[in-house]
Amino acid sequence: MDLAYSKYAIIFDDGECFNDEIKLLKERGVKCRVIKIPITRVININTDPNFHSYKRSSAYEYIGRGSYWGNPHSMFEKGESRDEVIRKYKYDFDYDKFPNKSKNEVFKLAGKRLGCFCKPELCHGDVLADYLNSWDDGE
Q1: Measuring CA to CA, which residue among 78, 69, 79 is closest to residue 123?
Q2: Phi/psi zone of residue 65: left (φ > 0), alpha (ψ -120 to 50 degrees), beta?
Q3: What is the pLDDT of residues 5-45, one digit of tens each?
Q4: Beta strands 60-62 and 41-44: pairing type?
Q5: Cβ partners under 8 Å of residue 1, min gap 6
Q6: Considering Cα of 90, then 94, then 96, then 100, what sign does the dihedral take?
Q7: Cα pseudo-dihedral 111, 116, 117, 123, rounded to 10
Q8: Cα–Cα distance between 9 and 31 in angstroms, integer?
Q9: What is the per-residue pLDDT for 14?
Q10: Cα 99 to the chain's mean position, in Å?
Q11: Cβ atoms 89, 81 nearer than 8 A
């Protein structure tokens, strides 16, 4: 980032990613407007000890098998690939085809860590996180 000619900066920040950059900009006298936004991330519950024993909190939601947001399409039942079961989940999510879920409930997950066992591989949680992180809340 070339700050030599920067006078102003607009930063969309979730409070985690740009702390060093914001500090550097302010030290250099750059006027900053920091807009707080929630970022939804998918984590592996086996490798992230902070949320290992929780099912739900204000910062976390378990989305693995058996949960409200669990993927009903299993790789093991029909021998389908990870890509295929995630594609099916995305289709069901996009077209609100889940029999016992309301797509409108997804907004309760905004800004949370979504815990599953898949990460760092592709995960159905990526469908939820991508949707929430691209959603314009109008603010």
Answers
A1: 69
A2: beta
A3: 778 999 988 888 888 999 999 999 999 999 988 899 999 98
A4: unpaired
A5: 21
A6: positive
A7: -80
A8: 6
A9: 87
A10: 23
A11: no
